[in-house]
Amino acid sequence: xxxxxxxxxxxxxxxLAMLTDARLALxxxxxxxxxxxxxxxxxxxxxxxxxxxxxxxxGVTLLVLWELSVRLYDISFVILPAxxxxxxxxxxxxxxxxxxxxxxxxxxxxxxxxxxxxGAFLAALAVDRSGFLQRGLLPVGxxxxxxxxxxxxPIFVMWFGFGWQSKxxxxxxxxxxxxxxxxxxxxxxxxxxxRDLMQTYAASYGQTLMKLRLPSALPFIFNGLKICTxxxxxxxxxxxFFGSPTVGMGFRIKIEMGRLAMDMVWAEIAVAAxxxxxxxxxxxxxxxxxxxxxxxQRRG
Amino acid sequence: xxxxxDMAPSRGARAFGAVSGAVLPVLTVVLAIxxxxxxxxxxxxxxxxxxxxxxxxxxxxxxxxxxxxMTQERPVLPAPHQVFAEIWNTTVGEPVMRERRGEMQGNxxxxxxxxYHTLWPTLLGFLIGTFLGILLAVGIVHSRAxxxxxMPWAIASxxxxxxxxxxxxxxxxxxxxxxxxxVSAGIISEDTKLLVPKAxxxxxxxxxxxxxxxxxxxxxxxxxxxxxxxxxxxxRGQTFWKLxxxxxxxxxxxxxxxxxxxxxVGTIVAELPTGARFGLGARLLTGSYYGQTIQIWSALFMAAxxxxxxxxxxGVLEKFTLKRMGAQA
Lengths: 300, 329
What we know:
- The complex is a heterodimer.
- By secondary structure, chain A is mainly alpha-helical.
- Chain A has helices at about 5-20, 20-45, 50-70, 85-90, 95-130, 130-145, 155-160, 165-185, 190-200, 205-240, 250-260, 260-290.
- Chain A has two domains: about 5-75; about 90-295, MetI-like (MetI-like fold).
- In chain A, helix 2 (about 20-45) packs antiparallel against helix 3, helix 5 packs antiparallel against helix 10 and helix 11 runs antiparallel to helix 12.
- In chain A, about 40% of the residues are buried.
- By secondary structure, chain B is mainly alpha-helical.
- Chain B has two domains: about 1-75, no CATH class; about 110-325, MetI-like fold (Orthogonal Bundle), CATH 1.10.3720.10.
- Chain B is about 80% helix and about 0% strand.
- Chain B has a two-stranded antiparallel ribbon.
- The chains are: A mainly alpha, B mainly alpha.
């Protein structure tokens, strides 16, 4: 394929769209323009900050296209509000959004995340001492991790009431097994040779754990922690659908959906997405700090 | 396990070693879970039984109290056998079809009927998600621009709680002119239209593992192999079909197993805020409205059985495919 194929194809497509619908041509032009910019940027290897700029351009392009299509095609507010409308709502309703964020993320999800992941880690340490338990728990844990645990939400809401405690309980149930499986696998990750070496140093169980096995388990542990960030958010928000106080992101989405205030629903989604990405990014950042030696963290 | 397998000479003996090495511990763990469950259900249901005894001025021995905790109609935590009895009664004990308004229709009292209504969108969503995921992965591997711009957003897309966008997808999809035209033209039925949003939501959850797995898989050929293709002056297309794609198959199956479990979660979650009348998620919701704990647990177990069946099915398919491709076990 000669290098001019794609640009020529894009131009032809835009011209074709121009004949039928000028609005479509504009949208296509924005899309191909941004894409060409990204393609040029991505192939320049040595520019610093490129890893940030390219995805940013892509994200901004998506937002611009969204706004453009909503305005040009007069898409109904109920179906899809424009990003500008959502942003306006986010600015005016900051108090409510903050209260919901605190209730769902800081109380429900975070408490459950810490309890669930911490508990799973301790359980993995306990299981680790017995090979028999390990062989039994790994398949069972893997199996349970694949089950739709979200379904326990109504049960926990019945047991622990409408407050954030029941949301935390759901989160604990959701994150426990994925975390346990990852921790147990991680604790097995060190080589037999390395463990033998520790034995020749007459290292105690605690010393071997702290100096060899935990560090070599870290990539697995962080893998589990990263998976659990999204699970925690899903669990906390889903549980609110089965009963909640009059605050919380799941509650707000349910209520505002009923009132067809779609801009508010999207504002909550934006907050959830930001919180989720931030949470994930934070864990990834800590991982990069602690497991800088692992091949997957090397920067090419 | 590997030590046993290495020493065993014949294939049968090796298989036996693997089985006996895993089955006993797994059984022990499962039995322990069941025992803890029974103990917990006695503990949690006791308060209600004791309360009843006091109100009715009865005298009961400890054994009778324990037995009474396991026969309640709305226990806090139903005992395992109660859940299994409920599952049995609502699958085998109910007719699958029943006559209504002169025609045979699915029987909503049958749990299999609800499982069917959840499994269909799950499979449809899984297919859509897998297709899109593979497409994205191929693009990401071949275009640097796509790798840098799409991958971070694919990760970000998974941090959006799916339940939040479920109602929106339902509203948008059910208002799509194309879909409504198709319904009025008789191309698809009204039931199929209700299935589309659920399938889209499960596709949203299931595409991501496929993208991650396929990108890793398509990049898994070693530099040596890629260089060999170059010395044969193979085109990009040839390298893709003859080297990259076959090399990615084991990765694909691993991520398919994750993604079908995610697709099932997606469908169940999609049924919650959308007021679905049929499906395992709807069953959970009605159970929680009316305090029918046994119904909730049976729906939960049905979902678990579905998930296990799907994952096992993919596992069999994986074994078969890899064997046909000549992989060593």
